[in-house]
Amino acid sequence: MTQDMLLEPGLNGAFVRDGFGALPVALAAKLAPPLAAVPAPAPHHAAQAASQHAARAPLAGQRLAVKDVFDVEGLRTGGGNPTWAAQQPLAKSTALVVERLLEQGAQWVGKTVTDELTYSLAGVNVHYGMPRNPANPRRIPGGSSSGSAVAVAAGHADIGLGTDCGGSVRLPASYCGIWGIRPTHGRIAANGCFTLAHSFDTIGWLTRDGALLTDVFNVLAHSTTQALPARVMLCLPDDLVTLLHVRVRAAFATAFDTLSGRFETSLLTSASLAPEAWSQCFRVLQAAEIAQQHGAWAMRHLDSFGDDVRARLKAAVTISDAQVHAANRMRSDAIRTLARIFDEPDTYIVMPTLPWIAPLIGTSGAEIDEVRVRSQQMLSLAGLAGLPQVSLPWASFDGAPLGLSVIGTRGDDEGVLAVARAVHDMLASAQTDG
Q: Which residues form the Amidase domain (predicted)?
């Protein structure tokens, strides 16, 4: 199939054509407001009844874009690869998270472009093209939730539902200058969602503001907004600072000084963490799980993939049992090390989400892979330990955005969201005052 047949025209190239603009009839009927099933109210009560229904729907009016890895009844789940899509049946049910968001008032826009089987962080898809980054059209948007990130950043949607395995929500959030969350692993039910690597994949989402990011979490986790704790400790890992571009390092030092005026702060000394070793551990375990789930199918259809994804899939099936065993031991060590940071309640890691801004379009494949490797050294912390992480808009370099992140202990998603919003507001206020 050609790109014109796969892609909805315009809209920054963010949406696939299948299911765009309207839900399948059967699903739409199931999701009709409860008011439609009861006798019509008297005319002078109709507006009041509609208002009450809207008040009960916390996401009323928020436009929803959904990464094409979620089942939607009556549609095929494409996964970014036309050969894969052609072999999928029409979904007989809808992913729990999609159904929940729609039930709570979100308005369907359509499904969004994803990297092939979500196995990339670039946002480049040989079949669907590359969604155009609204924050800087000369730079890549980041993947694999590229379409959802671009849809939100461009204003075509308010909520971009995605998935995050190795950084597929957090990285495009940073590159596109918006909010993104990777919740605690397993906190949000993934029923009806394609997974790349089962012990790493999470549901995630993107918005243009922290309040809506929190509202979506409250809906999906059946939670309530948490107030900022009276005492918060922000930790800065020195091992991650050394990974940053020199200009990011200088800007972050200023930001950390600003945050020190409101929060307690602490520097995690060098060699507290092992980001290079941990990211390699992540890549081994992720690849082994991908081979376990998708290796047989991928090897039969290698010609259907772009060069970059094909190379990763071929490498994934060569991972040995010995490599997996060693990586699992290292993962256990990483989990214990990170858990000790959060021994004291209300302690959080704060850091730039990535070492640097998005690469320019046309950057060589080798350079993109090098960026991927460096980025994973920062992204793998939350992935290995299943920790909640929020990437928030922060700074701009050479006309391109870079996000800041807050990471917390397992299960403290509410705290991470509250701290991230407070950090954002404080830094924004300092920029305005300056």
A: 40-417
Together in a domain, 140 and 249: no
Question: Would residue 133 count as lying in a domain?
Answer: yes
Question: Where is 206: in which H helix or E strand?
Answer: strand 202-207
Residue 398: strand, helix, or coil? coil
Q: Is 111 annotated in the active site?
A: no
Q: Catalytic: which of 111, 120, 144, 405?
A: 144
Residue in 286, 234, 308, 292 with CA at minimum distance from that of residue 264: 234
Q: Specify whether the CB–CB gap between 162 and 148 falls below 8 A.
A: yes
Contact 387, 410 (CB under 8 A): yes
pTM of the model: 0.93
Residues 176 and 239 in one domain: no
Q: Which of 145, 146, 148, 168 is an active site residue?
A: 168
Is 67 marked active-site? yes
Q: What are 223-247's pLDDT values in tens digits?
A: 998 899 889 999 999 999 999 999 9
pLDDT tens digits along 277-298: 999 999 999 999 999 999 999 9
| Residues 96 and 219: beta-carbon distance below 8 Å | no
The residue out of 221, 249, 283 marking a domain boundary is 221
Flag the least confident range among 37-41, 193-197, 242-246. Answer: 37-41
Give the CA dihedral 321, 324, 325, 331, nearest 10 degrees: 180
User: Do 238 and 188 share a domain, yes or no?
Assistant: no
Same-domain pairing of 239 and 180: no
Let me know: does 266 contact 237? Beta carbons within 8 Å: no
Domain extent, residue 248, equals: 233-433
CA distance readout (Å), 102 to 59, 159, 184, 251: 8, 11, 23, 40
**pLDDT for the residue 434:** 53
Q: Beta-carbon neighbour count of residue 276 at 10 Å?
A: 15
> Is the same domain home to 122 and 271?
no
Please tell me whether residues 120 and 189 are part of one structural domain.
yes
